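So, read this over?
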Amino acid sequence: MVKESYFVIYKIADLEEELEQIYRLNYETFVEEIPQHEKNSDHRLVDRFDDKNTYVIAKRGKEVIGMISVHNQRPFSLDKKLDNVDDYLPVSAIPCEIRLLAIKKQYRGGRIFYGLCEMLVDYCLERGFNMAVISGTLRQTKLYKHLGFKAFGPLVGTEEAPYQPMYLTKKNFERASKLFERMLRKEVRQDNYNFLPGPVEVSDAVKKAWSDKAISHRAKDVHKVMEEVQQQLCDVTNANYVEIAVGTGTLANDMIAAQLTTLPGEGLILSNGEFGERLMDQAVRFGLSFQSISKSWSAPITLEEIKRTLVEHPEIEWLWTVHCETSTGYVYPLEELKQLCNQYGVRLCIDACSTVGVLPLHLESVYLASTVSGKGIGSYPGLAIVFHHEKLFPQNSIPSYLDLGRYQTSDSIPFTHSSNSLFAMQAALQQFCPDKTKLFRDISNAFQSVGMQVLTGENYSPGIVTVCLPPEIRSRQFGDVLKQKGVQVSYESSYLLNHNWFQVAIMGQQQASHIRKGIEIIVEVYQQFAREKEIHSCEN
């Protein structure tokens, strides 16, 4: 039985070298620290129940950093200290005794103790014990109680080393575990470093605008703000028109797909990642007829391949692609795509959800483009945004909520809108800063300097750093450790877990110095994982 928690392994001691470390830890704790036994020149203490004990240990690499023993053979040590122990226990008790809790000083504070107890409870239940008794040191009474231990009987031991008899049941342990874990998280809470592609970190001005009193979407003030926000969005992207709906990036792309159903001919969709595949799925759902160029994730799709497809299929009238493939950070060359589409009379549509606010973007001559209020714009999620090159008119063949023409003829407020979302995005656009290139380069260099594999190059977005972890380091565990330290990276999406990747998104409103502190923590955690990986490979 072995459990692994971040950098610590919990197991039953079964090696001679582990037992030797146990005896020395026994000595350090119960001779040098707690005066229960006489000193000796060997600096080791073998328990009198050693032949009966099972030792649950915590190991970091080859070092035993914590232990606790258990056995079920009467008489217990507690039987010799307290008369009629069974009189204090429930009638249904099948007890074992826990003894010799010892944790090296530098690892104390709750987490290791909790891990030992969790392993111990599993071990006891496997062997049919439903209760564990313990003589708990008074110095740790509060911690014991947090884990569900119940005190019984008078104090035992000596004046120099008093102990409180206590017992633990599975029910009490499980009830206390959630509370205890919350307590530990509170104790180790760090500054928050948000490297998610959404929700992103927002500025105080955005927070204030979001928290203002909501007003009716029919009010003149809301229409005025809508007009101003539309103008701001067009100014920063060189687009002719833009519509804003209450929704997500998926809704924005559904609106594009719906609009494409009004065009004759076929389309062409490019895909070399998760979000290119999603565009194809959305096109299928809307019954669109299209060709596709699909490649493995992050493999480049060349302009020559696109040109060849357009030549071979003159019926193609539109091309739809992500601008930045968020799953990898790969960026398609927008200017070259615009030129190619203009050359062959093809309408270009792009998913720009991860590039507006991250890269300088010029949408003139782009037929349709989608983005969102979160991510690079730096506001809260909740607004779906679609830019368009031509003036659009309502189409009865399109569901009304997806009809871009209906939005345009209604000044982008055909239905209930969120005034708070609009005010917050307006505040975010006033702090717009789309160039993250230097930060991306610094972060990539920091990662690569310690051996991390980064997807990088001229075809990658400066807003998304994708790291490919080695098989020995699982992205789920790595991301969990970072989260515990207050660093949020993107790793929980199925496509990232499947590839064993994590991503650092440089979006939203954060100071460069704050970002660099978060990157330092990621580097430190990676180096610690790398050291543990080397240790484990030596043990195997």
